[in-house]
Amino acid sequence: MTSHLSGPPLRFGANYVPSEGWFYSWLDYSPAAVRRDLADLAGMGLDHVRIFPVWPWIQPNRALIRQRAIDDVLDMIDAAAEFGLGVAVDLLQGHLSSFDFLPSWVLTWHQRSVFTDAETRAGITAYADQLTRAVASRPNVFAVTLGNEVNNLWPANAATPAATTAWAADLIEVVRAAAPDVLALYSLYDDAWYDPKHPFAVADAVDLGDLSTAHSWVFNGVSAIDGPLGPATVTHADYLVELTAATATDPARPVWLQEVGAPGPDISPADAPDFVRRMLGAVTGNPALWGVTWWCSHDVDRALVDFPDREYDLGLFTTDHRIKPLAAELAAFIHELAPGARNLERRPALVCDVDLRTEPHRRGEVAPGSAFHAEWTRLRQAGPVAIVSAPRAADQPYLAARGISSVVTPS
Length: 411
Prior knowledge:
The chain has helices at residues 31-43, 55-58, 67-82, 118-135, 161-178, 191-194, 202-207, 223-226, 231-234, 236-247, 272-283, 325-337, 371-380, 396-401, and strands at residues 3-7, 11-15, 48-51, 86-92, 95-96, 99-100, 141-147, 183-185, 212-216, 255-260, 289-294, 342-345, 347-352, 386-389, 404-408. It is α/β, with parallel strands linked by helices.
């Protein structure tokens, strides 16, 4: 097909995991160690990092927000600026690498849901407002996300679809008021897309905030379909970006691939560079894509215990700052893609008769391994394939805005 579209240059970054002490390093913050880590990333040609202040260490009491902890966050942002890196800040950690970090004032005798309890929501609002105002004082901060996959905090915290929608919508407005020139974002992991019983709405992921985010992890069942380098595995990021774009009401709404990685044992170290090349080759041709942020910057020290095994080796760099082959492949891809805007091809779209906005109980029908996913993967092997919801399959202005040339009905 002929290229008819052009898109702005993509952003490429890393989710910053400190090489010394994982996120526990916030408890004993080392400016020198942070700068050593960020030098690694800048040397690859990345343009941004996503950082994760740990909520209970900043707000250990509902009425106490520690300025010294905020100052450490600001130093990390300033360190990124020294290396020419933009920064996206996640507010509520919340959930990190299989661990939940919640302040004591929502636990034990004080047990209450972060999503539904009025006093807890008031405390979170104060935290979000104060931290957002602080980080927005730095010109290299371009985004604030409510938290890292906050839907991982359920079911430990009671939630309903109505409650999670209200919670996120209210906090997005808090962030916008505190930092009107910064992207305000809401991020969910993919159960929101694939699990019919999940109490977080797909519509919220594409309606709330200034752009949509997607977290693509092939250990969700995709890699079991066809192995580490099979079509379903290497195109899953593209599939999730397409589902996200197809669910948004605005055909021009961008999608940030905010997390993607090469987890073992699904993808071995030997296969990881090839996975990087194929996955990026598929998803970077998507006109909805805003940028790609790799999970994660550095490995986790195996002296730290109780992490799932795959979490230790997800980094672009080892804990002693050695670059990995997959990181070299990522850097090479970025270098090749760097010049100018992207040339994007118009492509056909597969019609999806599941309306994810109004039929969340049917989410399983688009999950990895479903008939729809299998058909999309089959068609995708011949080239880019969009997804379009059935109600919009005949909407010509909408199709043109998304770069869709024709529609295909599932066989």
